[in-house]
Amino acid sequence: MHIEVGGLFxxxxxxxxxxxxxxxxxxxxxxxSKTIWVVLLILLPLLGFILWLLFGPKQR
Length: 60
Known about the structure:
Number of strands: 0
Structural class: mainly alpha
Number of helices: 3
Radius of gyration: 12 Å
Low-confidence stretches: none
Mean pLDDT: 88
Shape: elongated
Helix content: over 70%
Strand content: under 5%
């Protein structure tokens, strides 16, 4: 099953992905944790972002 993302939704998802990656890299999480989150966000954009919102590194 392949889900195509385009148009306005695709642009919004791209902006949210960049935000999530930047926030992950700025967090105080360990290097391995940051790497896993960034790879997950890149490989599974929509699902990765949802998981990041629920379980990702939190700011102090």
